[in-house]
Amino acid sequence: MALRGELIPKPTYTAIRTITDEGSTAICHKCYHEVFQAQCVQKTVSMLGATDSFASTEPRLLRSLSHPYLIDVWEAQWDPEWGDQAVTFTMPFYEGGSLHAALMSGHTFSMGEAISLTCNILDALHYLHVERNLVHRDIKPGNIFLANDLKTALLGDFGSAASIQNGSASCAGGTPLYKAPEWRSGSYTTQSDLYSLGLVLREMLGGRFRYEDVDMDDVDRRLLSGNRTLRGRDLAVPSFVPDDLRRVVNKLLQKESSSRPASALEVQRALQNIQHLNWRTVDSEFPMKWAGEVTSGKLRVPRDVEATAVKITRGPNSGMIRLSARWRHRNANRWRNLEQHNLVVTEDNHTEWRAFFKSVSTAMLQSTARR
């Protein structure tokens, strides 16, 4: 049982409720710090299987971690029930909850939000990898926390973090679904953290993985054979994602660690240089709908874009999909159709779908560039 306050007349912590949406086996309690008069979270993490984690070997270093996109650790204690087999971390409570909770609630992130949140975590990883010589070893939505507006991400849970020795650490700890293929080799590098973050980015772009349908025995078999935990079809990014961003995701998810980006900073720079129409999925079931926005310093009023995909039920094209797009000035009543982007495509031809979104994005971005 997690530590939730001292047995004294005036305890430091008052337990509020158990948190069950963190997407992990950790024990979490939302508490109130009576001295600081602030809400906080106590998270008990098992140290079994992660004997080289610096929470086990050098827990004092937890207090020395300081970065805008890392969760502050107020306190760390050996759990009274589990002894040195588990540590209870006390950290601030973030109203936005975890990324896992947001995904499970059905929240959809725009492409710009997904890029921005990923860049926050990449900034934190650059600090850990380069300045502190550490790997996190458990990057996943449940360990990424969101500010109240869901527009700032912070990396937390350092129970598995370990020092890099001779370029790598052991593959202890972590969550099976988010482990990199090199887990079998026993050698964990900074590129392994980037692989896990690539999975998180894919979820923000295309919606959460269907955890309830994942065969964990298959995940274990794939890890033991040195493969990615998910199959290619499960890792596909949505059609609205531009080629530059698609390449970043695909590179992060390369099976061979040597084929992935060399550093978090390299990925961050690549993401920040991507020009894109800011799409967000509104409805992923037919009739499908996507909302986009174009903002530019040259535009006095931002532009809204809408794309739809409707199944054709009659006529010679029955069974095919009609893709269409329209735009308007922000808050205007009148929509203007993009006639040249009204196409009929087959449902499973992803090349045609990508070409449609590319042409719409190009037309809208070029029209603002000419102003």
UniProtKB/TrEMBL annotation:
UniProt keyword terms in alphabetical order: ATP-binding, Kinase, Nucleotide-binding, Serine/threonine-protein kinase, Transferase
- Keyword 4Fe-4S listed? The answer is no
Determine if Transferase is one of this entry's keywords.
yes
GO MF terms listed in the record are: ATP binding; protein serine/threonine kinase activity
Query: In the Enzyme Commission scheme, what number(s) does this protein have?
Result: 2.7.11.1
Gene3D superfamilies hit by this protein = Transferase(Phosphotransferase) domain 1
Please give the CDD domains that the UniProt record associates with this protein.
STKc_PknB_like
- Taking every annotated instance into account, which residue ranges of this chain make up the domain Protein kinase? 1-279
The first-level EC class reads: transferase
Highest taxon above the source species: Bacteria
Catalytic reaction list = L-threonyl-[protein] + ATP = O-phospho-L-threonyl-[protein] + ADP + H(+); L-seryl-[protein] + ATP = O-phospho-L-seryl-[protein] + ADP + H(+)
Q: Which Pfam families match?
A: Pkinase
InterPro entries with a match to the protein in the record: Kinase-like_dom_sf, NEK_Ser/Thr_kinase, Prot_kinase_dom, Ser/Thr_kinase_AS
- PANTHER family annotated for this entry? SERINE/THREONINE-PROTEIN KINASE NEK, SERINE_THREONINE-PROTEIN KINASE NEK11
Q: Tell me what this protein is called.
A: non-specific serine/threonine protein kinase
